[in-house]
Amino acid sequence: MIERAACAAQVKAWQGRMEQALAERLPATDVEPTRLHAAMRYCVLNGGQRVRPLLLFGTARAVGLGETDVEAAACAIEFAHAYSSVHDDLPALDADGVRRGRPTCHAAYDEGTAVLVGDALQSLAFQLLASDAALPAAPLVRLRLIGLLAEAIGASGLAGGQALDVAAQGPLSVPDMDAMYARRTGALIRASVLMAAACAPQAAADLEGMLQAFAVPLGLAFQIQHDLADVPHGASHGRATYPGTLGPAASRERIRHLHTQALEALRPLGTAADPLRALAEWLLLPAD
User: Fold this and answer.
1) What pLDDT is stored for residue 41 in this prediction?
2) What is the pLDDT of residue 174?
3) How many Cβ atoms from other residues are within 10 Å of residue 271's Cβ?
4) Average pLDDT over the chain, rounded to whole?
5) What is the mean pLDDT of residues 161-182?
6) Architecture of the domain made up of 4-284
């Protein structure tokens, strides 16, 4: 198992790599339409943990690839995540005015620009998967990558999860929250892991099933952890959350159970999956 300090150093290196990779693939602010391009950069280059690219890099290591092999896919999934965040912040949905300590896109620019930023980032994500020269050239690999991302952000994934959230009236049962979280948060987590595996088509046929069995509980636990972090700030927007339904202590116990479940799925991969084990611990069991 990778020690926590070594994992933290690797995370920092990967985060730095992603900031550069994202900046290189975003349109320049001196190219028309300059306001749209400036807003896209504002919304993407705003810090954050880069959780989904980290999981993509960790999975790449597990299947025998390097960061260069999957960097464009990591950028694509981060653009998709940024697009969803920009749209979620809009007054019609979460009506958030602040994200990571500064005004959200519609607050810093305007609502129309925020809608266009989300549209443009989603389009850019698929453009990278279709044409970035650093990804495997095989057409079937490209199609698989495009299909995984499309599924993750569509009605059976992120958009569907947000729709369930918006439609919810009153408290939700735990199974209903699990179903909502599996789409709203878990879908992009799963796609991050599976897209890295798709870049290594020579991997064992049963590898995808193992990785999915890891990613599903990880995605749910990650959202519960996010809910717990929001408790002191009262940032639930009046919607159902695990801490609100079960309480913080039971929510933390659920995270520990899901973490164990995720690690168990990686057992057949041996030490090759150590980067994923370390990332799971870093994400779900923060140091005191």
Assistant:
1) 97
2) 86
3) 10
4) 91
5) 85
6) Orthogonal Bundle (1.10)
Buried b (16+ CB within 10 A) or exposed e, 35-54: ebbbbbbbbbeeebebbbbb
- 128-136: long-range contacts, CB 8 A cutoff, minimum separation 24: 128/25, 128/72, 128/73, 128/75, 128/76, 128/79, 129/72, 129/73, 129/76, 132/25, 132/72, 132/75, 134/68, 134/69, 134/71, 134/72, 135/69, 135/70, 135/72, 135/73, 135/199, 136/69, 136/199, 136/201
Beta carbons within 10 angstroms of residue 73's beta carbon: 28
Q: What is the pLDDT of residues 81-120, one digit of tens each?
A: 999 999 999 988 877 888 877 999 999 999 999 999 999 9
**One-character DSSP codes across the chain:** ---HHHHHHHHHHHHHHHHHHHHHHSPPTTSSSHHHHHHHHHHHSS----HHHHHHHHHHHHTT--HHHHHHHHHHHHHHHHHHHHHHTSTTTT--SEETTEE-HHHHS-HHHHHHHHHHHHHHHHHHHHH-TTS---HHHHHHHHHHHHHHHSTTTHHHHHHHHHH--S---HHHHHHHHHHHTHHHHHHHHHHHHHT-TTS-TTHHHHHHHHHHHHHHHHHHHHHHHHGGGT-STT---HHHHH-HHHHHHHHHHHHHHHHHHHGGGGGGGHHHHHHHHHHHS---
